[in-house]
């Protein structure tokens, strides 16, 4: 009931779930090199309802198509693991990861380079927080009170929806594997809504989902949920490109993501008004070392998900 995949975008026909994509041959971009093909495949991780990805990424996709001279086909991911495996097998050329799923991909030998991380505003660092939330009238006041309760997480490969909450629970003396009944909701919105509907005693989701996205859609009202825990700052979610792409295409994508923000897209006619990219102002350059703090949390939790085990 909680399976809410990342928003999917339609480009030049129907979008196939990555569960189906992984059964196909290599992406057009990796057959003889991206320079020999007119198509690139772009996939994303689960976050919200699947009906809005077309609008969220459309200005960015059009800009990257102009930069590379190639059609970009957006694929609907079923979960984090599907994106990792799709890029490993050469069926995905560009992918949006969470910080943890990016680290897992690198730990498992996926040859990718991060070219930008999402940021909420011009000049703001690429980062966000995980919130632990409960119903407003809940007697729960801290993570220590969750022992014996039902807790909504997002996905085992989610940074803010699982890894950082697991570390926070451990600090509060709660073992996420033994002391709570875990529900993997499949999306940040589904996790929060699972709490709002009473199906979970508590849950975890991004700060933006709790403070902005769900209230803006009328899915929750101010005061429906109460924040009982906030994580440290988490590195922003990265976009990563496959290292086996044609060098000219890799450079065009790298430069494109450096310019991928609301101001640039608006000024160059790719969108109007607020002009956000999947709810964010845009991207800011990052490198692999940006995600060392995630590796540090993995070292603390020793979670098998950090290695994809």
Report on the architecture of this protein:
The structure is a single chain. Helices cover 32% and strands 19% of the residues. The protein is built from 10 helices and 13 strands. The protein has a 6-stranded mixed β-sheet. Strands 8-7-9-6-10 form a 5-stranded mixed β-sheet. A two-stranded antiparallel sheet has the order 5-11. The two termini are 26 Å apart.
The chain-level structural class is: alpha/beta
Gap from first CA to last CA: 26 Å
So what's the overall shape? globular
Helix content: 25-40%
Radius of gyration: 19 Å
Q: Runs with pLDDT <50, length 5+? A: 1-25, 28-36
What is the percentage of strand-forming residues?
A: 15-25%
Give a count of the beta strands, DSSP E runs of length 2 or more.
13
- H-E order: HEHEHEHEEEEHEHEHEEEHHEH
Summed over residues and divided by their number, the pLDDT gives a mean of 85
What characterizes the major β-sheet?
Answer: 6 strands, mixed
Strand order of the largest sheet: 2-1-3-12-4-13
**Number of discrete helical segments:** 10
């Amino acid at each position: 009931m909680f399976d809410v995949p990342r928003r999917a975008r339609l480009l030049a026909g129907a979008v196939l779930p990555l569960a189906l994509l992984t059964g196909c041959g290599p992406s057009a971009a990796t057959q003889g090199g991206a320079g020999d093909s007119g198509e690139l495949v772009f996939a994303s991780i689960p976050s919200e309802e699947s009906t809005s990805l077309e609008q969220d990424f459309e200005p960015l996709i059009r800009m990257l198509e102009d930069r590379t001279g190639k059609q970009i086909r957006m694929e609907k991911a079923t979960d984090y693991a599907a994106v990792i495996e799709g890029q490993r097998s050469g069926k995905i050329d560009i992918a949006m990861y969470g910080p943890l799923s990016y680290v897992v991909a690198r730990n498992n030998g996926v040859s990718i380079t991060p070219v930008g991380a999402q940021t909420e505003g011009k000049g703001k660092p690429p980062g966000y927080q995980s919130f632990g939330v409960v119903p407003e009238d809940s007697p729960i006041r801290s993570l220590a009170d969750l022992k014996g309760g039902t807790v909504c997480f997002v996905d085992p490969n989610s940074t803010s929806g699982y890894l950082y909450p697991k570390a926070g629970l451990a600090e509060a003396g709660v073992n996420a594997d033994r002391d709570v009944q875990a529900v993997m909701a499949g999306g940040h919105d589904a996790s929060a809504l699972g709490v709002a509907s009473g199906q979970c005693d508590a849950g975890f989701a991004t700060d933006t989902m709790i403070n902005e996205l769900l209230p803006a859609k009328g899915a929750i009202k101010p005061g429906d949920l109460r924040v009982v825990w906030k994580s440290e700052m988490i590195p922003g979610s990265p976009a990563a490109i496959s290292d086996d792409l044609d060098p000219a295409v890799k450079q065009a994508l790298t430069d494109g993501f450096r310019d991928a923000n609301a101001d640039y897209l608006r000024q160059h006619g790719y969108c109007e008004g607020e002009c956000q990219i999947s709810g964010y102002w845009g991207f800011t350059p990052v490198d692999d070392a940006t995600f060392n703090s995630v590796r540090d949390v993995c070292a603390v939790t020793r979670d098998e998900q950090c290695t994809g085990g």
